[in-house]
User: What shape does this take?
Amino acid sequence: MSLLEGPSSKQEEMIKQELGENPGDIERGVIDLRSMCAANPHLPRPDAIDNHIFEVFLRGCRMNFERARNKFEAFCYARCRYRDLYIHRSLNEPPLSDVAKFLDIVPLPKLTDEGLRVTVFRVRPGYPENAVDITSAVKAILLISDSRLFDEKLILGDAFIWEASNVRASMAASVAGGANAIRRSIYLAQGAYPQRMRRIHVVGAAGLVASSLNLMRSCVNEKVRNRYYLHNKIEELLDHFPARMLPMEWGGEEESFDVLTKKWQQRVEEVRDYLRNFNELCQVAPEPKYDNDIYGTAGAFRKLEID
Assistant: This one.
């Protein structure tokens, strides 16, 4: 069952205009992506991919067929070249089962007024120190991102909220230890996932998380760096997001983080078999064309452009 709500009729018209989507574009784009899969022996068979996933890629790339082809290829190849990030496909089994003890990863059900999908990353209060594993958190984030493709509706773009008020010094040290996984996931998010990053809000960014924030900002281009918003208090989010869509812990009207987290754990289980099968279909990939593409060695990444 889908956890994500779509746009209103007024929002739908506005979003399609912003994306440059005209009647018949989606159908032509799906045919184009299916033809690419049929012609490329390294990609899954066309009949193994649901139309909806192709549609999400097309809209995430503003109906640019070439960009959608490149991103979908990168999305598939990532499972071969970054096997360590995609090997675990359940949030209820180790090692990912411990992630929910220290981090909530929640795409919110409702869209913002302008049609953005908001995903929250919230460090839980009172988390156990021994549960913190940043590399596992990265894998969990990618897993939920994969699962979200099944449910995503027509959106204008993405907004992220990182709530770091509860971070302790020990977690900051763990982030430094997981820097390679973080760096790779950020570049995958830009180069292999159909998202249009519009805003990144960071709450409670004390000095001890400054290095982590700088790491994330160093991996993106100047346009994205200018979309960061820093907040001292949770209450400041209400100046940027309507209360109807924020969880109740933040003064909003949406369900609690505990409820939303459990719903996403269940949703991941529902699509678990498909995701595992998809990975198996993507176990062979051609050699990278360039030494500095997103699959190169750590430290050799190029800064990818996004809208």
Summary: The mean pLDDT is 88. Strands lie at 103-107, 116-123, 157-163, 197-203, 228-231.
